[in-house]
Amino acid sequence: xxxITANDSIIHFNETCYTxxxxxxxxxxxxxxxxxxxxxxxxxxxxxxxxxxYSDAEVEIIEIESxxxxxxxxxxxxxxxxxxxxxxxxxxxxxxxxxxxxTDLGGFVACTFKRGxxxxxxxxxxxxxxxxxxxxxxxxxxxxxxxQIGVISNPNLVLIDTDYLETLxxxxxxSGLAEMLKHGLITGEGxxxxxxxxxxxxxxxxxxxxxxxxxxxxxxxxxxxxENGLRKSLNFGxxxxxxxxxxxxxxxxxxxxxxxEAIVIGMILExxxxxxxxxxxxxxxxxxxxxxxxYYGKVTIDKTDYAPIIDLLKYDxxxxxxxxxxxxxxxxxxxxxxxxxxxxxxxxxxxxxxV
Length: 355
Prior knowledge:
two-stranded antiparallel ribbon; alpha/beta; 14 helices; single chain; 11 strands; seven-stranded mixed sheet; 355 residues
C-alpha cells in the first residue's frame, strides 16, 4: 500500500513502516529514543517492533496501565517524570505503540514535555489505525469527560502495520470497525457498501479498507485541520456516543463500553434524529439499526440513564454559545453541521434504539 502524506505527517503501511522508521532515525540523529507502551502492547507488540528497530541511540521503555480509565493528566505526570528521570532532552524521540489511549496520551506528553519533542505513533488497534492515525488530535480525559484536555499536533511519522491486528480480541476489532462504518455514512455509498455484509470481510479486505479510511479522514482534515467546519463531520455519532460512553464509564453499576461500541449507539440515535429533522430515509435508519445491532448487540439503556446522558451533552467539544451542536445526515454521504436537537427528540431516539 502506498504511503500517505497528511499535513506534517507521513503515514506508512506494513513493511514500509520499518524501512522508513530506520531511515528517519538515521537522518534525525535523536539523542535518545523512548517507547511508550501499556502492559498489552509491551507483551504482544513491542518484541516485533524492537526486532525491526535499528538505532544508534539508547532506547528506553516506559509502560503505563491500559484502558480509557488511565487516559488522565495523572498518567501524563508519571510519564513526564519518567522522561525527566531518564534524562530526556529536546532532541529525544517518543514512539507511542498502542491503541488510541496510548497515541492520544503519548502525543500530548510529547507536545508538552520541554515545550515539545518529536514523536511517532504506531497504532496497534483497528480503531487507532483508522481514527487516531490522522489529524493530530492529542490529549486526555477530564474525569469521565472525553478528550477535554489536549492540543492538535502531528507526529513525524505514523506506522500502520496490520499484523498487529492479529493480537486483538474480537471486541476491539468491532470497536475499530465502528469508525470505518462512520466514514461510510458520511462519505457515500461507494465506501458504505463494503460493510453491508460484515461476515464476508477478510483481513485482506481490511488492509484495503483501512487504507481507504485513512485517505477519507486525511482529505477532510487537510481542508479543516482545526475543526472549524468540515472536520466536524467526522463527529457524526460522537455527540450522543461520547455522552453514552462517559455515562457508562462513570456509573459504578454499568459495564464500561469500548469507544466504538458507544459510537455505534450514537450513530443509530443520530440516524433516527436525522430522519426526523432532515428527512434521512427512515427505511435506511431501520437497516442501519438492524446491521449494527446484529453485529454489536444491544446495550441496555434504562430510563434513569436518559437525564445524565443528556446532561453530559453540554460538554461536547462542538458546542458553542451555549448550544449543543449535532452533525446529522440528509442521506448517506450528505451531512449537515451545527444542528440543534430538542431534548424530547433525543429521548425518542434512545427509545427507538431500545425497542
